[in-house]
Design goal:
The complex is a heterodimer. Helix content of chain A is 65%, strand content 0%. By secondary structure, chain B is α+β, with helices and mostly antiparallel strands. Chain B has one domain: Alpha-Beta Plaits (2-Layer Sandwich), CATH 3.30.70.120. Chain B has two helices and six strands; from the N terminus they run βαββββαβ. Chain B has a four-stranded antiparallel beta sheet with strand order 2-5-1-6, with helices on one face. A two-stranded antiparallel ribbon of chain B has the order 3-4. In chain B, helix 1 runs antiparallel to helix 2. The N and C termini of chain B lie close together (9 Å). Classes of the chains: A mainly alpha, B alpha+beta. At the A-B interface, helix 8 and helix 9 of A face strand 3 and strand 4 of B.
Chain lengths: 433, 112
C-alpha cells in the first residue's frame, strides 16, 4: 500500500471517519438485536461486540498484511506487513499509512459482524468466536486484496467502499452459513417477530450516521470525491427507505418502521460500492432500485427454504449486488475528473458491467467455498449449533449467563445469600424458565 | 370481605382509579396482563410476514372490600371502564377468608 505525504485536512477527515465506522458495529448490533427475540438479544449483541474485541488484534497481526501488503502476489498481500512491521509515523507519509490501516481495520471488524444476523438464535458462541477471526484472515483479507489493487481491481472493476469486498462477500457467507447450520426449530411456522422495534430504529440511525465515514471516508482524503460520496450516501439511503416503505404500503397495507429501516440499510449497502463513481441523480436511482428489489428479496428465504434469520442475504447480498452491478451502468469518470472506466450510460459499453459481474462471481466463489470449509471443520470439532434445550430457552442465559431485561432485585440474588436479604437466591431453572 | 377483580382496557386505568377513590376505596393493586376474550387479537406485519397477536394487553385491578361496599365498588369500575366497544373487560367478585396488615398484625376488616 502506497500513500503520499500527510495532509492535515485529509488526516483529520480519515481520523474522524474511522471513528464513525467503528460506531457502525454497535449500531449493527442494535439493528439486529432489536429484530431478534428478547431471549437471544444479548447473544446477538455479543456476536457483534466479539468482532470488536478480536478483529482489531487479528487485523494488526496478520489481516492487514494479507489484505493490503505489497509483499505477495496480485491475489495475496503476503506477510511482510505482519505486526505492521516497519509502518511508522516519522517517514515520508507522516503516519497516513498507519491511519489508513486503522481505518480499514474498522471495515474488517464489521464485515464478519454482518454475518451474525443470519445465524441468529442457534449458533454456538464458541464456534462463532473462532469463526469470526478465521474468516477475516481466510476470506475477508484475500478478497479485499483482489478488489483493491489485486487482480480484480487491476482489470478495472470498481468497488468504492466495499460492495463486493464487504456486502456481497458477507452476504454469500451468511447464506452458506445458514445452509450448513440448518433451520431454527419451528422455522418458518413458528413466528420470530422483533422484540424491540425502537432498538432497531436506533441501530438504523447509528448505522446511517457511521456510514458517512464508511463511504465518504473511503476517499481517504478531504476532497471532492468524499463530498460526492457523502451526498450519495445521504440520498441513496433516503430513496431506498422511501422505495421499501412505499412497496410495503402497496403490498401489505402499511408503512412500517421495519420496512423504512430495512430500506435505509439496503440503500446504504447498494450505494457503498458506487458512491465514489456516480453522481447524485444515479445515486437516487440506485437507492430506489435497492429498496424495491430488497423488499422482495427478503421473501426468497421462504420459497427457497433457507433460514436467514434477520435477512442478511436479502439485504446485504442482494443490495450489494444491485449497487455493484449498477456501477456498470452509471460510472461517470468525467464527473469526478477521475481515471476509471465509464459505465454503459456514459459511453463505456458493457465492458465495465462485465468486470463488475466477474468481480462479484469471484468473491462469491471464494467466500462461499472457504466459509463452507471453515464451518465444516468447526462442525466436526467444537460443534456449531447449540442443543435443542438451549435453543428453546434462549441463548442469553445458557451462552452468556446474562438476561437482557430482568426486574432487578426482585428476581435476583447472590447464591448463598440468606433468606431475608434484599434478593433471594434463584436457581438457574427460574431464570431459564 | 370480598376480592373484586377487574380486567380492563389499559387506557381506562386512570378513570377506574379515580372512580374507585371517589367510591371510598383506599387501596388497589394493578398488574399488566394479557389475554383474549370475544375481542380477539390483531395482526402485525414485519418484512412482509404476518403475525397473529392473540393475547392483547389489559390491566388487572384488584380491590379488597367489605361486603357492604362491594356493589358500589363494582358499579364504580363498571361505569368508569365502559367504552361500549368490544373488549371492555370483566369484573368478578370472590370471597376472602382472611386479610392481614403486615405492619401491625391487624386481622379481618380492620386490615382492609
Amino acid at each position: 500500500m502506497k500513500v503520499g505525504h500527510m495532509d492535515s485536512g485529509d488526516a483529520a477527515w480519515v481520523l474522524a471517519s474511522a471513528a464513525l465506522v467503528l460506531f457502525m458495529t454497535p449500531g449493527l448490533a442494535f439493528f439486529y438485536g432489536g429484530m431478534d427475540r428478547s431471549r437471544n438479544v444479548l447473544n446477538m449483541l455479543m456476536m457483534n461486540f466479539w468482532c470488536l474485541l478480536i478483529v482489531p488484534v487479528v487485523w494488526v497481526v496478520i489481516g492487514f498484511s494479507i489484505a493490503g501488503g505489497d509483499g505477495g502476489a496480485s491475489w495475496f498481500g503476503g506477510f511482510d506487513a505482519a505486526f505492521l512491521d516497519g509502518i511508522g509515523i516519522t517517514g515520508e507519509d507522516g503516519g497516513m499509512g498507519l491511519l489508513t490501516i486503522a481505518f480499514l481495520g474498522m471495515f474488517a471488524v464489521i464485515t464478519p459482524a454482518l454475518i451474525s444476523g443470519a445465524v441468529a438464535d442457534r449458533m454456538k458462541f464458541s464456534a462463532w468466536a473462532i469463526f469470526a477471526p478465521v474468516w477475516v484472515i481466510l476470506v475477508f483479507a484475500p478478497i479485499f486484496k483482489w478488489v483493491y489493487g489485486g487482480w480484480l481491481g487491476q482489470r478495472g472493476s470498481l468497488d468504492f467502499a466495499g460492495g463486493t469486498a464487504i456486502h456481497v462477500n458477507a452476504g454469500i457467507a451468511a447464506l452458506v452459513a445458514v445452509l450448513i447450520l440448518g433451520k431454527r426449530k419451528g422455522w418458518p411456522s413458528e413466528g420470530h417477530p422483533p422484540h424491540s422495534m425502537p432498538l432497531v430504529m436506533i441501530g438504523t440511525g447509528i448505522l446511517w450516521f457511521g456510514w458517512f465515514g464508511f463511504n465518504a471516508g473511503s476517499a481517504l482524503g478531504a476532497n471532492g470525491q468524499a463530498v460526492q460520496a457523502f451526498m450519495n450516501t445521504f440520498v441513496a439511503a433516503a430513496a431506498a427507505g422511501l422505495a421499501w416503505a412505499i412497496v410495503e404500503r402497496i403490498k401489505d397495507g402499511h408503512f412500517t418502521n421495519l420496512g423504512a429501516a430495512s430500506g435505509i440499510v439496503a440503500g446504504l449497502v447498494a450505494i457503498t460500492p458506487a458512491c465514489g463513481f456516480v453522481s447524485t441523480g444515479p445515486a437516487i436511482i440506485i437507492g430506489l432500485a435497492a429498496g424495491a428489489v430488497c423488499c422482495f428479496a427478503v421473501q426468497l428465504k421462504f420459497s427457497a427454504g433457507y433460514d436467514d434469520a434477520l435477512d442478511v442475504v436479502g439485504v446485504h447480498f442482494v443490495g450489494g449486488l444491485v449497487g455493484s452491478l449498477l456501477i456498470g451502468l452509471f460510472a461517470n469518470p468525467e464527473h469526478f475528473g477521475g481515471d476509471f472506466m465509464e459505465g454503459l450510460f456514459y459511453g463505456g459499453g458493457l465492458k465495465l458491467l462485465g468486470e463488475q459481474a466477474l468481480a462479484n462471481v469471484a468473491a462469491i466463489v471464494w467466500s462461499g467455498a472457504v466459509t463452507a470449509a471453515i464451518l465444516l471443520v468447526l462442525k466436526a470439532t467444537v460443534g456449531i449449533r447449540v442443543n435443542e434445550d438451549v435453543e428453546a430457552a434462549g441463548l442469553d442465559t445458557a451462552e452468556h449467563a446474562e438476561t437482557a431485561y430482568n426486574s432487578g432485585e426482585v428476581t435476583m440474588g447472590r447464591p448463598g445469600a440468606g433468606a431475608g436479604s434484599a434478593g433471594s437466591p434463584v436457581t438457574s431453572d427460574v431464570l431459564v424458565g | 370481605m370480598k376480592l373484586v377483580t377487574a380486567v380492563i382496557k389499559p387506557f381506562k386505568l386512570d378513570d377506574v382509579k379515580n372512580a374507585l377513590k371517589a367510591a371510598g376505596v383506599v387501596g388497589i393493586t394493578v398488574s399488566e396482563v394479557r389475554g383474549f376474550g370475544r375481542q380477539g387479537g390483531h395482526t402485525e406485519t414485519y418484512r412482509g410476514t404476518e403475525y397473529q397477536v392473540d393475547f392483547l394487553p389489559k390491566v388487572k385491578v384488584e380491590v379488597i372490600a367489605e361486603d357492604g361496599e362491594v356493589p358500589a365498588v363494582v358499579e364504580a369500575i363498571e361505569k368508569s371502564a365502559r367504552t361500549d366497544k368490544i373488549g371492555d373487560g370483566k369484573v368478578w367478585v370472590t370471597p376472602v377468608d382472611e386479610v392481614v396488615r403486615i405492619r401491625t398484625g391487624e386481622r379481618g376488616v380492620d386490615a382492609v
